[in-house]
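Write out this protein's structure.
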Amino acid sequence: MRSIVFFILFLFCYKSATAIDSTKIELHFPFNKFNLTTTEANKLDSVINLFDSSKQILTGISVYGHTDQIGSNNYNDNLSLKRANKVATFLNQHKINAELINNLLGFGKRQLVTTLTDESERILNRRVVITFFYENKKLPVVIKKVEQKEEPIPIGTPADPKPKYQKLADKIKDTTLKVGDNIELPYLLFVGGMHDFLQISYPYLDELFYVMRDNPTLEIEIQGHVCCTNDLDGLDFSTGRKNLSFARARAVYDFLRKIGIDANRMSYKGYGHQFPITQERSEAEKTRNRRVEIKIINR
């Protein structure tokens, strides 16, 4: 057995904080009302409390009000703005500087998320969408004394280097891939408890787009999965509905559809926590279960 000892280093490095991150939340309102319900106020309060001033700097907030499809444009424009203003007042009362709110608008009924008219669907339109933009502060990292022991590799046991990322295009070209097979997309990551993509996801969403574009006969089912729940599915903090895996699969579908992939070539489904692939003993294992996969329907 050989021992490798590194010198003691007291080096202070700084993580770059040039990128702007964001967190989005949707609050919903009773018909013809603009005051926050207790449930929605608590939801917003919980998101505000996630921000740690020692680690993050809020750089801006947008607040957009909406209504359902009932009533005139003029009436709904005023109602949606009242909802947005009520949220802005709540933020100010919870020590959020009013100057950070750089967009406060009421869209009335012009941006419906559903045209269905039953109450369970119309409430999705009666919303205020709040987006918090922030920067992570530069944090010092201390590199301490490290001692590593290199264990011998037993005879007959191959070394296990960290696996390289295999491009999705190469997986699709694999002749052993057949209809019905699933491909895991490990770098499509989301804001915790929401269906909003983390910034790291966009290059891999683009990769999926190019694969769909370059393989015009390829048809897929987009499958969402969550971790760490005994319920059938996880709670989506953005909407308050227990359909997080479905919402994340739908987010991938919507992304591809909006940039030109034929909707007839895609479907989406949420599988909740029905098919975990790890035992969730560590954060890394939990992350594996918070995943999106594509199932090959046709090649």
